[in-house]
Fold this sequence. Notes:
The chain is mainly β and about 450 residues long.
Amino acid sequence: MTKTLSIACAALALVAIASSVAEAGGLTQPFRGAxxxxxxxxxxxxxxxxxxxxxxxxxxxEIDHFSFLVDGGLVLERMTYDRVDSGGNPxxxxxxxxxxxxxxxxGLSYKPKKARxxxxxxxxxxxxxxxxxWPENGPQRYSSISLSGSLLVTLQLGAAFRVHENVSIGFGLxxxxxxxxxxxxxxxxxxxxxxxxxxxxxxxxxxxxxxFFTPSAIVGLNVHYPTWRLGVSFQLPFWVRxxxxxxxxxxxxxxxxxxxxxxxxANLDFNLPPILRAAVEIRAIRRLRIEAGIDWEIxxxxxxxxxxxxxxxxxxxxxxxxxxxxxxxxxxxxxDSVAVRVGVEAEPVKRRLWLRAGYIFESSATPDKxxxxxxxxxxxxxxxxxxxxxxxxVRFDLGYAHVxxxxxxxxxxxxxxxxPIQPALxxxxxxxTYNVDTDVIAVGLNADW
Length: 449
């Protein structure tokens, strides 16, 4: 039993790394940036400032001379969970606490005076993440306790080219810096003298995983005429190869007094999805833009994870000696998600004042059976508002979004408690009702000279 416990403690920590990333479709909002967010994220066809680098880099060809963008957002997410335990008993409602962290965007572009057909640019941006923390001893503890400290930062360098009077193309080479920090609980009840969710048989597991070289790229096309524009872009997958350290606190029950795990390092391989975006913007009415588009996020590429321990073994077990952990695969089987967007941008005072509004419908990448307290994923209806004021060469942007996430009641959970003593016990830990309420606020500054 000690051997099995040791293996499971290390393995669960690695699984938690995988789970943190597997739910990224729910952790990230389908927009980013104060100006793009204000118009419902419709920045694929009509985006014409540095905020477009994450949507369609071909649009950056329109920027003249030098341009600078700094932007910051706050994701205010509130989540409640009414769990039904493995015995069918309703448990008290538990609420998450928000991790309030400004989410930045920085960008700089330049169009040479002697090469008006090209714009070069660089930038750093972070997805709009909603990271929640939960009580360590709450009813959700077998799914998630905390993701506080997790971060995804993308560095992007590229160029946009005018290849025809009405056609531009663009690309961006990217590198994502990832850090995932997670705390989660596993159960170790042998069903001899305890119940499956006995707190004295809980083992707290903590992890810290990172990847400093996670390359990808984005390419885009823009066809533009005075009264309409067409934009298409394709974000390539991120092939993540992360390394992590794990630590487990063994249960307080005397049954586990002599258990010991030696080593803490492991590798984790998985993919983040490619994204295809397409949109049309209409400018038939003076000082009014209307854009409609669709995004297809191909989460099906995230079917499993390969976890390779690096010299982790258990020691001190009589009759066994050292036992090294083998490579593991975690089955995650996510679905694709689709986002449909509509955005409006009006200019009541020419080159001085702009007003915006938008709507987004986004389906969920996570099926009911794998839904958990780890993230507030679900079918989303999103209303956005925004505005800008220009003073000389500087434009100040403000954006707001409210995310209506459909309440989810799960009765067929296949999110199992990890139990190293009785691995075939299959205690469901995801049943119950999930409610999520999210507000996002963003401010930005754009300067041209």
